[in-house]
UniProtKB/TrEMBL annotation:
Pfam family, one: CHAP
Name this protein carries in UniProt: CHAP domain-containing protein
SUPFAM superfamilies: Cysteine proteinases (SSF54001)
Residue span of region Disordered: 243-265
Length: 289
């Protein structure tokens, strides 16, 4: 799909070692949103239009609103390209609005890319594995000598990571009718679910289901931490101590552990059974793993 470029515009955890198994308990998790909350709100609006201005589906959004922010009025009182309006609305309204600094986002898809830079949650490595709740931004233009983007074509939200490695995304302002201006495109588009196949997930790829090139993934700041592969938070196993799945990153030197971040840049064992994830949370792992 081709369209005019959109304008620019620690949480800590506790761990308990029991018979070689780590039980992880995020502190104050009830007060923070999670990627699952974001996915639930995004998918609840698949098929809906920009709001009351929509010619495709003018029913209220899942929270009863008549628009996603300025989706129906941001273009001089008319409908605007609203993929970023939708993604911002989801982040802001998930689990009480616990995503931090979401107010810095705007109707420009590039604002998500710049949010990732400003909050240190932008992922541009081709090896990055998207997480549920991440934003995925397409066709970002970064001026020479600059770090922040000037424009982008689209932003969607990751709503599921499938067992085969593919991901599901929810895309506001998708599938509209081109050729009659911004307002008409926005009025005829809807929230569309799109699957991205495993080989089309890396940054720099152009998913066939989207038709634009991935510039980066952005994790919302303020998320309640999710347990790394092989671990479950307390209670998700029915309240017992295990058993848990095998952690695929459990052997030294954890060179490809996607949850690693400085000071354990490649996920090395830190000598006390722990390592840090992409959110800066210090997860414990059993000494025998």
């Amino acid at each position: 799909m081709t369209r005019t470029r959109r304008p620019a515009a620690t949480v800590l955890t506790t761990g308990v070692l029991t018979a070689g198994v780590i039980v992880l308990t995020p502190l104050a998790a009830s007060a923070a949103t999670s990627g699952t909350d974001i996915a639930a709100l995004a998918t609840a609006n698949v098929g809906k239009g920009a709001g009351s201005c929509s010619l495709a589906n003018s029913t209220p959004n899942s929270l009863g609103g008549a628009a996603y922010g300025t989706s129906c009025t941001g273009n001089g009182g008319n409908a605007e390209y609203w993929c970023a309006d939708f993604a911002k609305w989801v982040w802001q309204n998930s689990a009480g609005g616990a995503v931090t600094n979401a107010s810095t986002l705007n109707a420009g898809a590039v604002s998500f890319y710049n949010y990732g830079i400003d909050n240190a949650t932008l992922h541009t490595a081709t090896t990055y594995k998207p997480q549920v709740g991440d934003a995925v931004v397409y066709d970002v233009v970064v001026p020479a000598g600059k770090t922040h983007g000037r424009s982008a074509d689209h932003v969607g939200l990751v709503t599921s990571v499938n067992p085969d490695g593919s991901i599901e995304t929810a895309n506001g302002d998708f599938g509209g009718t081109s050729g009659s201006g911004e307002a008409y495109f926005a009025e005829t588009s809807t929230v569309v679910a799109a699957t991205i196949e495993p080989d089309q997930i890396p940054v720099g790829s152009t998913p066939s289901s989207v038709g634009m090139t991935i510039s980066g993934y952005i994790t919302p700041a303020g998320l309640a931490p999710s347990a790394p592969d092989g671990y479950l938070p307390l209670g998700e196993d029915g309240g017992t101590a295990g058993p848990y799945a095998t952690d695929p990153y459990a052997a030294d030197p954890y060179a490809t552990d996607p949850y690693a971040t400085d000071p354990y840049a490649d996920g090395e064992y830190d000598g006390s059974g722990g390592y840090a994830d992409v959110h800066g949370n210090a997860w414990l792992r059993s000494a025998g793993s």
